[in-house]
Amino acid sequence: MLKEWKRYGAINYAASHKTMHEEFTDKVILVTGGTGTIGSGLTRRIFDYEPRQVRVLSRDETKQYMLLENLGYPERLRLLIGDIRDRERLELSFKGVDVVFHAAALKHVPFCEYNPFETVKTNIIGSQNVIDAALRADVRKVVAISTDKVVNPAGVMGVSKLMMEKLFINANYYKGDMATIFSCVRFGNVLWTRGSVLALWKEQVERNGVISVTNEEMTRFMMSQEEAINLIFAATKIMRGGEIFIFKMPSIRIIDLAKLFINKYYPERTIGITIAHNRGGEKLHEELLECNGATIRIFENEKMFIVVPQVYIYGSRQKHLEYQGFREISRADIYSSKDHINADQIAEII
After folding, report:
1. pTM as predicted
2. In which domain, by residue range, is 158 found?
3. Which residues are catalytic?
4. CA spacing 20 to 30 A to 268: which of 47, 67, 195, 262?
């Protein structure tokens, strides 16, 4: 754990560990989508900081039972069956909560393409329900999990998560004098999550000994589950409301990732690679930052960006925020996955 924070963490581990105790000890924490890979990993880590209670809101009772088993039946865990589309259920779930991590979403690109309004109902309307419930419950901090697919989005999933980001950022302006603050973290592809490409390839190898790659030139940003959770914790510490936190991730061509995967896990087997076609809603390359004329301030340190959208609303005043250990940059170049390939770093992650 210590090695992981020193290597990948955006902030010093010792300071972070102390700060996370300040954020979580004797607090009530709610994780929407808390039975997913990131949500369950986040829930496990929060218990390191002696919270008063951790609530997990999700739809699948079987996954909740598995989480309960895996965590060893902690007394301070509360498992709530519910959907972020259900405003009444959210109202009850949010009572007395101090911090919310919003991880519930529809995220599989092809299924979002085929079910666009279902995606809207969860990723957009459901996210607004989370905001409303947080304001009514006087939650202190809310961190929403987003994706690099929001930058110049090509499909329904990316568009819906971009709108989710807009909802969370702008909530800081219309909330008035309420103390609740909202921010986002923006992930790349998190390796070994359910539905991720490595998990898919493992199933394909076991089924027929052949893995599929959509395009030989396709590149993607990659991060580990530990890095993803560390980014969430860093955001929770630093946030003032209205920021998007982004880890500076390496990227790789998917075909090269496939070869690394085979060499790592099946060195003595002959595993075939087939080239399929791009799925609907996918881009060849991803970007982490908007450079299309959006009005934003960007701060950076060695490990991460903080993007602060400048929202100009009649009668509102922008806060001139600064962040210790970060410098403001006048303009960021397009941070594209095709330009930040580092197979060695990703080999270590997998």
Report:
1. 0.92
2. 2-188+223-248+290-333
3. 149
4. 195
